[in-house]
Amino acid sequence: MFHNRLMMSCLLVAVAAGCGRAQRAPDNARINRKIEIQVRQQLDVPADWSMTVGARQKSDIPGFDNVPITFFSLSQPNKKQTIDFLLSTDGNTLARMSKWDISKDLTQVASTSGRPFRGNPAAKVTIVNFDDLECPFCAKMHAELFPETIDHYKGLIKIVYKDYPLVEIHPWAMRAAVDANCLAAQNGEAYWSYVDYLHTHGQDVSGPDRDPAKSAATLDKLAREQGQKSKLDVATLDACLKKQDDSVVQASMKEGEALGVDGTPTLFVNGERLSGALPVERVWMVIDRALKAEGITPPPAPGEGTPSQPTQPGQAK
């Protein structure tokens, strides 16, 4: 998407040929037009997006001024984005360089406080999965994580799910997330049993006629049945299911958007992002990398033999 292309890490393009004797700075209107043409070509800016080149300002880069460029959709004027470019003082070179804030702990990208988890609560590696309970690709990833991945790492990881229902294409995903959270409020295992069931019986919830009202009734029925199995407080659960408060889900979705999540499943393994239902080997490569960064020896892949048990920092090898 064009929005993603704007976030490219570095763009360095010549705005004009600058050979020969020193030239005086060109007038703003002419150089701004040259900037617009070059940026439109390099970033493939859609024709229905307009660009405004702002005034030059002093930058921290010697020989370059800062030039803000604002992009906005003609059909949606309120949808706009301003990006800073660098323009050489002779007006011949335009550069786009990005800076990233690494002052924060990038291994803790998403809040997991109060969320149900599976695995070792003290694990050095946490996998946060932004999940949609109606998504077939999420179901595939869920099957890879449980039990295959959780068993393979034997206490070295912790897995937490966050809500990211794609409501535009999955009509019952929001209700499923709310109902799952109603269970989670009382018992984490009840939550996971409900999630396990939905990720293996999604077609049953959708039904042959794919009626959202019937799906909602089925989800509530399944949640009540799970509540009974888990010996939850029935009145509290019923009140939660009836209220359908989606504030927790909305907060999770907002958090995901801030992290660049635009589809499901999206995993963060100690901050490293994985998008889509990837083969389990790809997922394990990232988990192994995170373990090694924590000073932990990953378990061998199947077929590599059976060396000594994985070690935690400080343990004798």
UniProtKB/TrEMBL annotation:
**Gene Ontology molecular function terms on file:** isomerase activity; oxidoreductase activity
Amino acid composition bias (Polar residues), ranges on this chain:
306-317
Keywords from UniProt, A to Z, are: Disulfide bond, Isomerase, Oxidoreductase, Redox-active center, Signal
Residues making up the signal peptide according to the UniProt record:
none
Where the record annotates domain Thioredoxin, the positions are: 75-292
Which superkingdom does the taxonomy of this entry point to?
Bacteria
Entry's Pfam families? Thioredoxin_4
Record bears the keyword Isomerase? yes
| Positions of the UniProt region annotated as Disordered | 294-317
Q: Cell cycle as a keyword?
A: no
Into which family does the record put it? Belongs to the thioredoxin family. DsbA subfamily.
Tell me the protein's name. Protein-disulfide isomerase
